[in-house]
Specification:
The chain contains 10 helices and 10 strands. It has helices at about 1-30, 125-135, 140-155, 160-165, 165-180, 185-190, 205-330, 335-350, 370-380, 390, and strands at about 30-35, 40-45, 50, 60-65, 70-75, 80-85, 95, 100-105, 110-120, 190-205. Strand 2 (about 40-45) and strand 3 form a beta hairpin. The longest helix is centred in the last third of the chain and has 125 residues, at about 205-330. One of its GO terms (cellular component) is membrane.
Length: about 400
Amino acid sequence: MVSNSTNKSVWVLSGLGAVVVILLVLTLILFKFETVHGNQIGVLETWSGGVDQNPYPSRTYFLFPGFTQTMFTYPLSIQVFVMNDKSEGQGEIAEGREQDAYLVQSSEGQDMHISLNVQWRIDPAKVVEIHKTVREHITEKMLRPVVMRVVKDRATSRNAIEAYSGKGLVELQRDIFKDLTDPNGELRQRGIIVENFVIEGIRLDPKYIGEITERQVATQRKLKADEQTKAAQAEALRAEAEAQADLKRRVVEAERDKQVGILNAEKEARQKILSAEAAKQQVVLAAEANQQKLVLDATGTRDAKLLEAQGILAVGQAEAEAQKLKLSAYAVAGPDAFVKIEIAKAFAMAHQNVKGYLPMDMNIFTLGKNFSEAINKVMNGNAPLPNPAETGSPTAPQ
């Protein structure tokens, strides 16, 4: 009895275990969990619907039935693609080929081994298209061909000495990067975004490098000579500019002194003119004052003379008036007797101081036969009174 019970228990446990295993197998077949990590994006493929057109962002997805669905993930982080001569231990681990620096020829036919480095990433908006067309080995199928074509197009249009270093190398790198990042270019249209492009170096034939070095040394010497020449020319121009500035300063100072002299001369001339005008005005004023004085003196003399003449005239008029009145008083019978008496007085007065001897032939009756006749002649104007000087008679001694 015990053995039979034991056997039943074993069979029951075995059956339960088998059921559990079957359930687990069915669960694994029917259910699937897929995780898209943070730096990835997913693309889902199903048996019935094919590739889902919508990309799946980072998270964990429950798929049922799991055996009919598959999640493919693609990295969204920046990836590095290289073409150089370095081994894997000499630099950053990246997709690419060792001993695979890109060999192109310059415009003059020189071999150029170009080592390059491309940083790129997948465009999440076009990951479904990449999954449909490429899926694997994206760098070999999509990136490498385009990079090689662009580098070749740009490098072969330059000569080696230009592309080897310096400004030419910078321009070559800039032009290649511009083509790789063109929004309308092949890579961007297919879902590859180039973040950066660097030419690590260009390896040339050592003999040609020697020639380039010699040319660069000659170029540097020429540039140095040019710079020295420019410096000398600049120094000469500076000296010339200083000389010109000094000359202009001297000219300005001379012109200023000239103008100051002219102004001073004009000032002195104006002062002399003003002094002359003042002296002239003083002379004019003095002359006018003298003239006015003379006029006043002449006017005073004239007025005095006029007054004197008027006085004399008045005296004469008064005397004449008095004489007239006197004569009027004699305007009666016998006026001639009065006149005769006056003439006789005058005649007597005229000869009262005559001393000496009268002319021998002169007597009282010289003027007439008698005294009365002489008086009458004087009155009538028939015979002027005799002048003792004309008779030639000597005068009495004094």
